[in-house]
Design goal:
With 408 residues, this protein is an alpha/beta fold. It has helices at 22-32, 82-101, 119-130, 144-150, 157-172, 183-191, 206-211, 218-224, 245-254, 272-278, 296-300, 323-330, 346-349, 360-371, 375-392, 395-407; strands at 4-8, 36-42, 58-63, 66-71, 109-114, 133-138, 175-178, 197-199, 230-235, 261-266, 285-288, 305-309, 335-338, 352-355. It has an eight-stranded mixed sheet with strand order 3-4-2-1-5-6-7-8. The chain has a six-stranded parallel sheet with strand order 11-10-9-12-13-14, sandwiched between helices. α2 packs parallel to α3 and α12 (323-330) packs across α15 (375-392).
Length: 408
Amino acid sequence: MNKVVWYISKYANIKKYGAETRQSSFCKEFVNKGCDVKLILSNSSHLFSSLPKFKGRYLEDSSSNFDVVWVNTLQYKNASSIKRILSWLWFEFFVILLPFRKEYKKPDVVISSSLSIMSVISGSFFKFFYKSKFIFEVRDIWPQTLIDLKGMSKAHPLILFLSAIEKFGYKYADEIVGTMPGLSEHVEEIIGKNEKVHFIPQGISLDFYLEEQESVSPEYFSKYLPKDKFIVTYTGTIGVVNALGYIVEAARILDGKYNNIHFVFVGNGKEEENLKKQAKGLTNITFAPRVNKNQVQSVLNVSAVLLASVKNKKVYRFGISPNKFIDYMFAKKPIICMFSGYLSMINEANCGEFTPSEDPDMLAETLLKYEAMSNEKLDQIGLNGYNFLVEKRNFDVLSDQYIELFND
């Protein structure tokens, strides 16, 4: 199809620097299907610690079969600092200058992927400057996330500024892609009903799961994962938004009465110490250290049921498509998620169920139901998720949906 595609995302990454993110997975598939692709990203991120450091403004690189341009951007450490916002603006300024510094082919399609939502600026500029098709990809709904999860006022100057950017992006973009299934409802609240919102969720890169897996040590298994128990496991960040205190309360309900069920939290985060204090005295909870992403499957494989949870906030009303679901489904285990928003994936795949957010009694009741199931039943539920993931959520299939937007 010979489309020239620029994919702009401040927080993307490539395999050689620690992670093949959604953007790099799509870039690889776009090239496989005939596109000329350039991923434009930043070397300043609180998510990855080993990004390239270099002098000068730009570093030209490559990954697999596509070109990469790193933008040397203002560094920051604290994700809540003003320097993070300044780093967003810094990135956009030098992305806009990029075609004046480098001789690149004119892009036919420009994808601006949030977060940062500021990439609306560079995407819109290239639409105007190059007459490119502009696709606004929404992976986090900002500034609603700051309002719901950080408690910021709608009248705060930063919220007003980001709201204006968001509204402009929704209006000016030729297409809007959301990783959450109900994004169209949110966009309708902002700019009115339209037909340009598309749901393209998070996907799976099969190469990573089939070729790059390692196991944690035998000592890790013996220390943190008890034998002869019905293990229910949470893996990932231990943060406020994950609402893990309600899982601890479900454990409290079951402790001493149903001793076969044992909870394991694998990960770290700002709420870890608070969660441990809340769980003090309980005999059915283990806190295990974080493991590398390519070791997660080895932990999930010895679990019976896998857990996820988010707070009951408006921003989640439009749905979620977390990487955690990808890991969990590939492990072929039933999934229980405490979530009260727009339901997708788990219910579509019939690989577990949602229970209401912040309701430990219902979670405890649901876990007892799964603990009573036969191994054959549990295996079938887990296999449902795996089959759904591999057949409908791999990047090869999802990239076809994306490429259809290039041609509209």
